[in-house]
Amino acid sequence: MKTNFKPIFKTKLKQHEFRRSFFALSLIFVLMFSVLSATSVFMANAAGPVYVATETELRAAVNNAVEPTLIVFTADIQLTSTTLTIASGKDITLTSSGTGFFKLIGAPGTNTTTINTGGTLELAGIIVTHNSGDIGRGVYVNFSATLILSSGEISGNNVDTSIHSDATNGGGVYNWGTFIMNGGTVSKNSAYNGGGVYNIGTFIMNDGLFSENSASGAGGGVDNSGTFEMNSGTFYRNMAVDGGGVINSVFSTFTLNNGNFLENQVTHGAGGGIYNRLLA
To answer: Domain containing 31: what range?
Structure first.
């Protein structure tokens, strides 16, 4: 029995070792396949960074973008004729190389950027502006589009303030969709209503600064006709006829959880810091 037992035992042991080795190799293969698959999915959904220094390069990078796409400015870029449009389904982030902020300069008489329905634009370290004397909004956010300001500036954008129409509202940002401000500055913009931001969508301010924006009508910093939630940040030296810092329209919602209002002014109306309109 001893003579017959040993070979059978060795055979079973070898079969067991083979199955264990095969299982280990199979596990390694599955793990490698999972990593490669995850990497492929990530690469398919994250393009860039794409470095741009001219208007032609910028427009090509936006038009050819694979979402989400990081576009890095290496110089100031002047738009010569039309707005920069973020199409539906695009997810674009604009930032600057180096330590400073490069400028995206709008063409005269146009919005600097327009985000179409379903599009997303994040400003993470550039300045959206117009040259001195040029008329044009900074950013126009369509219905169901998203603008995120993480760092940088929306500044020096001005629309015609001599007459009141919807076209003369929102100097820095005209928001139909969702505007999330996590940082950065909205400054020295002007309009008839909503010098900094004219909001008829959803505006969530988590941090950042509104400074020296002005309106010849209402809402030097923000004219809110939608939903505005302020969680932190500062309004400093904004000016309007009514609501130097913020004006909240009838049937609109303004929630102030935290923040600072300093030296905001009205010319001859009500609410230097905040004016909450009530039914007459």
So the answer is: 1-45
* Same domain? 144 vs 211: yes
Tell me, yes or no, whether 181 and 262 share the same domain: yes
Residues 222, 201: one domain? yes
pLDDT of residue 216: 95
Q: Which of 147, 152, 232, 229 is nearest to 185 (CA)?
A: 152
Task: Please list the alpha-helical segments (H only) found in the chain.
Answer: 2-45, 55-63
**Closest-CA residue to 140 (of 59, 197, 221, 213):** 197
Q: In sequence order, what are the beta bridge partners of 51?
A: 72
Relative to beta strand 178-181, strand 146-155 is parallel
The pLDDT value given to residue 164: 83
Helix, strand, or coil (residue 256): strand
**pLDDT for residue 268:** 84
Report how many domains make up the chain: 2
Residue 238: which of 267, 271, 265 has the closest Cα?
265
55 and 41 in a common domain? no
